[in-house]
Amino acid sequence: MAAALSFDSAYRHMRRDEFAPVYYLTGDEDILKDELVTLLVDRAVDPATRDFNLDTRTASDLDAEALHTLIETPPMLAERRVVIIKSLELWRKNSKVWQVLQKYLAAPAPSTILVLVHGAGQKPDTTLTRNTTHIAVDALSPDRLIRWVNARAERAGVELQEEAVVHLIDAVGADLGHLGMELEKLAAAAEGPVDAARVAEFVGIGRGETPHDWVRAVVDRQHGRALGQLPRVLSTVGVNGVRLVTMVGTALVGVRLAYALRDTNVPNHRAEQDLLGHLRAARPMGLGSWKTEAAAWHAAARRWTGDDLDAAIQAAYAADRALKSTTIADELGILTEMLLTMSARKAAA
């Protein structure tokens, strides 16, 4: 079975007008799936005959007979046609419509490009991954996310300065839908280049008030600053205690790894590069630029001992368990207790 294509690989293939007979799109980034489908349609279907040679359906609207007719219809006055079927998870397994699809996959029509789209949060179907060109549309890496924001901003007609892009992502997170909405708001109201201060004004989150700023304060052992930031950060739309403790737990584990690498005979610059290599291999979610994070974790490791880092990770784990198990909605109290535990450990040291 061939490995799944990434979003970027599939995008490059389609830009070169290299098309497969059947695509199967899975993963959690529905917006990126839509972008791939839009690109495919733009490249593969002549606009003059698009009304005849493009069909977009939801799986729930198709029974076995309708599916057979849809995928076996030849193109009209054109070289090819495209058929898009969304929400594939709505089909019951072993139903007649699945049987029609399986038969078609054994011998797909050469003049039709069939695109099967599985919804977010769904496990890919192994039969389809074997018999189609599978595209796994996963979350973008931090560097790739920055490029996506810049490209979307350009299409929206807004010019973002480099620090403005970073602050927008730090404030909003990696949710592409939310980022797209904020960019549309900026495009409608902003004139000229947009700096970080202007972004902060629009999203309502100032510099130093984002979840990433709070995590940075924790790993830098500036617990007083982190305590002061916590109420504001926790009140931000889309932010909750579990997200914050997950982010800080990831960062603390990263600092612990940086500490372990520094504790060897490897030179500092090599240790930081090794840390960056681990980050790229693990691809943890919710981080900023991996290069920036690796440098920050490497620097923060100097402020900790191994025992203190282990205790901090344990405190984050305890906070995570408390947030997920308690019936009392006291996220601020649980995270405050976590920070005070870390702070007491530092004071004792």
Short description:
With 349 residues, the protein is of the alpha/beta class. The protein contains 17 helices and five strands. Helix 12 packs antiparallel against helix 17.
Number of strands: 5
Helix content: 55-70%
**Major sheet details:** 5 strands, parallel
Distance between the termini: 55 Å
What is the quaternary state of this protein? single chain
Order of helices and strands: HEHHEHEHEHEHHHHHHHHHHH
Inertia-based shape: elongated
- Rg, rounded, reads 24 Å
Low-confidence stretches: none
Description:
This protein is an alpha/beta fold and 349 residues long. It is 60% helix and 7% strand. The protein has 17 helices and five strands. It has helices spanning 7-15, 30-44, 50-53, 64-72, 96-106, 126-131, 142-156, 162-172, 176-189, 196-203, 211-219, 223-234, 241-262, 268-282, 290-300, 306-325, 331-348; strands at residues 22-26, 54-58, 81-86, 112-117, 133-136. Strands 2-3-4-1-5 form a five-stranded parallel beta sheet, with helices on both faces. Helix 4 links the parallel strand 2 and strand 3 (81-86). Helix 1 packs parallel to helix 2 and helix 13 packs antiparallel against helix 14 (268-282). The longest helix has 22 residues, at 241-262. It is elongated, with a radius of gyration of 24 Å. The N and C termini lie far apart (55 Å). The mean pLDDT is 89.
